[in-house]
Amino acid sequence: MSGPSGGAGNAAGAPSTRAAWAELLRLPALFTVPGDALAGAAAAATRPNSRTLLAICSSLCLYEAGMALNDWADRHEDAAERPHRPLPSGRIRPAAALAAAGAFTGAGLSLAACAGRPTLAVATSLAATVWAYDLGLKRTPAGPVAMAAARGLDLLLGATASTSSRTSRNAGTIPAPRTASGLRRALPSAALLGAHTLTVTTVSRRETQGGAPLVPLTALATTTALARLLTRPSTRPGPGVSASPSDLALCTALAAAYATTAARPYFHAALNPSPPLTQRAVGGGIRATIPLQAALSARSGAPVTALLTAALAPLAGRFARKVSVT
């Protein structure tokens, strides 16, 4: 990654600035976002539609708001522990990162509003959770719980938007019966996704210092338990919707991919909880989010959505070789 572009001329400066923003915003991690809304739509027993797309775009904006705000809030700590990051290295000004966080938040809420007031209400809760995490909760015991809640809310955002109708979009913030029913059906999937996020976030709290083997060992055990839960049929199928044997077979394969992606780096970090291996464990946990989302969709009886989500994994891996996801 190139350093500050001052004095390098316009030809070198522009690519350096773009690379710095790509690093700040963790662009490869964006591929882990669309699956939240898609899994939410599948869990709510509805096909993805134009409002699902609005939810995905809103999620992407709010995710990037969190990335920019995270580095702004951590700029002093990063100056000591990770001076190569865009803000402490001087490649991006702190004010620009904070402005980007605000702009992305505004854009995310505006897109959610286009899908209806109930969707905006969920997006507002998600945005508030993101800002609370980055500005205060991150370094407290509530930090991992807040991050888990954010991922769960992101899935519920997709469920809310996808089940809204023209009537409910123009109504108040109280969801229409169909939307409320979809939210209830999506809660188990949101809980599984939240549990995975809680695990990854707990490991990430020691990624710059390393730590004790107990944390990655616990993450390994949790991942194994989640993979087993994924292979069980959903207990709250939608009306006329249930996972067929082929859907369950696909879910089992995706659950295995999820476990493999996350478990191996967790195991290595348990053997040697050094900062490099802990960072790899965090990266593995982030990448495992995609097969987890795909497995949740398959478990809800949406194999096409599951395969579309799973197709994002190789793209995320390709970009992750150029820009770190942590």
Written account of the structure:
Helices cover 72% and strands 0% of the residues. The protein is an all-alpha fold and 326 residues long. The longest helix has 28 residues, at 177-204. Residues 1-12 have low confidence and may be disordered.
Task: Provide the structure class.
Answer: mainly alpha
Instruction: Specify the helix fraction band.
Output: over 70%
- Shape estimate: globular
- Mean pLDDT level: 89
Largest sheet: none
Poorly predicted residue ranges: 1-12
Q: For the CA atoms, what is the radius of gyration?
A: 20 Å
Q: What's this entry about, in short?
A:
The protein has helices spanning 10-24, 34-43, 50-73, 75-81, 94-114, 117-135, 143-163, 166-170, 177-204, 214-230, 245-271, 275-287, 289-299, 303-310, 312-320.
Descriptive labels:
single chain; 326 residues; mainly alpha; 15 helices; 72% helix; globular; disordered N terminus
Any chance you could write out the topology, listing elements then pairs?
Blueprint (H helix, E strand, L loop, with lengths): L9 H15 L9 H10 L6 H24 L1 H7 L12 H21 L2 H19 L7 H21 L2 H5 L6 H28 L9 H17 L14 H27 L3 H13 L1 H11 L3 H8 L1 H9 L6
